């Protein structure tokens, strides 16, 4: 099912709606990950305030975008740092499987290339990892998030010379993980 939406730059004026989107996506869409455990949920939501979101959207070192429906509803948001980290990528539970997440990631990849970033990385709750893997991210294994929940560390090369299975001049396959950013 395809949902109509536009991708646009996020502004601090979007902070309140974006914060509500983040919180709903985590509380409802990531329920399998926090399993309703109050301590995990509180830690995960702890920095998801309108003031913090406005600060994230205002930072010149971040590329923050939103997916907006024709009626003005925010359906998703994504935040890329200049270090190549996809710090946020969330979609309203009602808008999942409508192309919103893919469109947000595509826009972030375009910005990353404009910034000459060669590799993206992100931490994903396990329930969302398969989505990121379908978008070309490689799962590098388990890690612990800053709020104590197990997450998957994923990365994606934006440099064709570092792709999995890419051959070196001698014909040997490159190693599975390479540090293309240096």
Automatic annotation (TrEMBL):
Pfam families noted in UniProt: Acetyltransf_10
Gene source species: Massilia phyllostachyos
InterPro entries documented for this protein: Acyl_CoA_acyltransferase, Bact_Acetyltransf, GNAT_dom
Protein name: GNAT family N-acetyltransferase
Annotated keywords: Acyltransferase, Transferase
PANTHER family given in the database record: AMINOALKYLPHOSPHONATE N-ACETYLTRANSFERASE-RELATED-RELATED
Residue ranges occupied by any N-acetyltransferase domain in the UniProt entry: 5-159
């Amino acid at each position: 099912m395809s949902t109509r939406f536009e991708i646009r730059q996020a502004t601090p004026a979007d902070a309140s709606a974006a914060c509500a989107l983040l919180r709903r996506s985590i509380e409802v869409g990531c329920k399998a990950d926090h399993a309703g455990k109050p301590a995990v949920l509180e830690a995960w939501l702890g920095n998801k305030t309108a003031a913090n979101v406005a600060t994230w959207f205002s930072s010149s070192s971040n590329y923050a975008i939103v997916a907006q429906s024709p009626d003005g509803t925010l359906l998703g948001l994504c935040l890329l740092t200049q270090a190549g980290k996809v710090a946020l990528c969330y979609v309203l539970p009602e808008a999942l499987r409508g192309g919103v997440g893919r469109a947000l990631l595509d826009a972030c990849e375009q910005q990353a290339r404009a910034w000459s970033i060669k590799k993206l990385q992100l931490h994903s709750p396990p329930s969302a990892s398969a989505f990121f893997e379908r978008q070309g991210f490689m799962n590098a294994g388990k890690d612990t998030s800053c709020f104590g929940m197990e997450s998957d560390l994923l990365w994606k090369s934006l440099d064709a010379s570092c792709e999995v299975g890419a051959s070196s001049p001698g014909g040997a396959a490159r190693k599975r993980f390479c540090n293309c950013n240096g």
